[in-house]
Design goal:
heterodimer, A: alpha/beta, two-stranded antiparallel sheet, 35% helix, B: alpha/beta, five-stranded parallel beta sheet
Chain lengths: 161, 701
Amino acid sequence: MDGDRVAAVPEPTAAPTFHRAVIALSGHPNGTRLIQLVAEAGKPHKAELVGVHVVEVDWSMPLDADLSGRSEEIQQVLDLAETTAEHVGIKLEPVLLQARDVGAALVDEAVEREADLLVVGLAYRTKFGGDFAIGRTIPYVLKNAPCAVWVVREPIQEENA
Amino acid sequence: MIGGRRPLQGRKPADRRVRVERPHSPYFRYTGRNQLVAKAAANQPRTAVGRWWAGVRKVAIGRPLASEEEAGERLSKKKALAIFSSDAISSSAYATQEIIRVLATAGVAALVWSVPVSIAIAVLLAVVSTSYRQVCRAYPSGGGAYAVAKENLSQMAGLVAAAALLIDYVMTVAVSTASAIGQIVSVVPELDPVKIEIAVVVIFLMTVANLRGLRESGNIFAIPTYAFVFLALLMVAIGLFHIATGQAHPIDTPNADVLTGGELSIFLLLKAFAGGSVALTGVEAIANGVPAFQKPEAKNAANTMTAMAVLLAVLFIGITIISRAYQILPTVGDIPTTVSLVAATSFGKDTVLFVLFQASTALILFLAANTSFNAFPRLGAILAVDGFMPRQFAYRGDRLAYSWGIVLLAAVAAFLIWLFKGNVTALIPLYSVGVFVCFTLSQIGMVRHWRKVRDAGWAWRAVLNGFGAALTAVVLVVVVSVKFVDGAYLVVILIPVLVAMMLFIRRQYDASRRELAVRMDLVFTNPRREERVVIPIPGVNRAVIQAVNVSRSISDDVRAVFITEDPEDAEGLRDRWETQLPGVPLVVVESPYRALTGPLEAYLDVLDAAWPPDKPSPITFVVLPEYVARRWWERILYNQSVKRLRSALLGRPHTVVVNVPYRREDPSLFERTPVGEAGPLPPDNGPPPAEPPAAAGPPAA
């Protein structure tokens, strides 16, 4: 029995495989590293990547409000993600969403696309002595996503370590 | 650029989300604020003919490449030797032939001088290559003769070098291709009658390969070059062994050319020297390509230069010694070639090694020709950027190749081969002149360079380059004088012509730049000049209505002009015009001489003359209604008057010609607009006629 249990555990160094990954794009500079990581992990299996940027719409505005005032910055986030994946040699489909809640939109998109991986980044906040602000999106995704979830933490800068 | 929105249901009722369409996404990519990069899809043609042509090009030259896909390979010395030396080393395949062709005119006994002449040329090669080692060190970014002469001497010297280089590159293609075909015909004499056709086909194939973006890299160059070097060294070794062991005896040269009229003299020896000096062509290639070497670039390039010179000298002298020992004579039309006869004596006729050697000789000569397909367009692009050649030469095609330069080079080289019937000896006199002009200017430029920089060892470096310059200048004079009547005069004429042409182009660009220049200290606000619109019309039709609507958006001062030879026609039109287009005055110009453009221009002159002299002249927009043809042949039927008017008005001061195209595919505007009191459509309001009914009729439709 013990032997069977050991055999079922994957090799600790082997990257888990996936076929379709939804990547949350927040616009944080760490995003490029995140995409590179997922793209390189998915390339050997010809995985499909979907980069999702969610614009959170306040309840005071209609959900389909034209938030084009920020559009160029948003488009740039998605286009940069597409370019980064292309440089690795894998295609990424950029998707722009407007939703009331970022976490719910990410999970719903992953469900609709039958993704087997959802990737979110966790940025390091240098203010107030440095901290990882986990916020409410990551806990929501961890609790509700039906697929595997990767939380990719930004490396702590040396001077803050 | 946010487009439509598509609502999507979430797993919970409150979790709705909206997917926002991104219309720019297939065509562009944002890289900054108001900054877009076009994707391949933005480059796709939109018409059926355009798509068909793009398909043909894709099959012929491959898919378009983005600028970032350009390969930036650094070359090792071994690879660089193969890539940059094919032109120089391949010269050994025909240099000996040029010496013995001259000496044989003074009888077989004169051939004894072929070896001393080849040794003299090898000494010249040593001097030139040592001088060019200095160029490698001084110009790690690439020291072409044009760059060196322009920077250190003058713009004119640079242009002379550039003109000589352009001729040199064209001649490299012509001579190398002709010689390569000569090697093939030496093995398969049945191909002799079609050798020009074969040469043209080969140049065409090289053109296509280079338009596809063939790079001077990898094994494509290394294998044939090293195969030739190995087999040629083996051939020389066997030949020398035969001579040393007394096995070399004079042979009967097949197809020998009986040459007479010469007399052994200093002039004849100089002429033989000038003929053989073609061996030096291509020596400068390494100095031009220093940036392509691995680090330390300059040192590696200089060492590769020495290795190339040694190889070339060994092969050249070796082939000449063997040809002398076997008393090989020149042949009619250079078939079989001297080097093939030398190979036959060493390897044996019709042996595998002989055929392999001939194949590798042909291949290295093709590769030598191909080096010009990289160098000529690159020089053309540099000259275009400097304003000395049309700007098209600096544009890179779908495959990152300078397409204009490639096509021009191929066309001129193929023409020369056809003109000189593929005869290498006939082409050679045009070849050497340009090469030695470049050598001389480059070396003189280097002397000036060392005097300017004065770094460690500058004095001896300057002396070395000065000696090289003096020697190559003497050779240049010799080459020009002894080959002048054989064809060198063409180059002597062509270089000044090319320089004059380049100066003329530069002057034109300078003039247009001055005319278009904008002062840095000026700030441009909204123009204060008044605007008015004149619409020449052929009647009332949808194209005209659309033109009037566009005109109303330009200015309030809009008037239509109807030029006709029939006053009754005009009256009928006026009634209808005032009913259907109120507020837009119609001016009828009767034209009893049935002219169209003349009366319109005269009317515009009158309008200008009537403008108050104390006010600045207004901008006159001449709006031309145009009917867009669906098919190519329909273009013959429509808009001929529009074309005439447009060309007549193009140079008119204070006048802007605006074309307003009407497309049959979009009649929605007219379907929604009520006809008004007029009831049903009048009989002449159908599709616009091809040309106005009257011969003098106005434009559009």
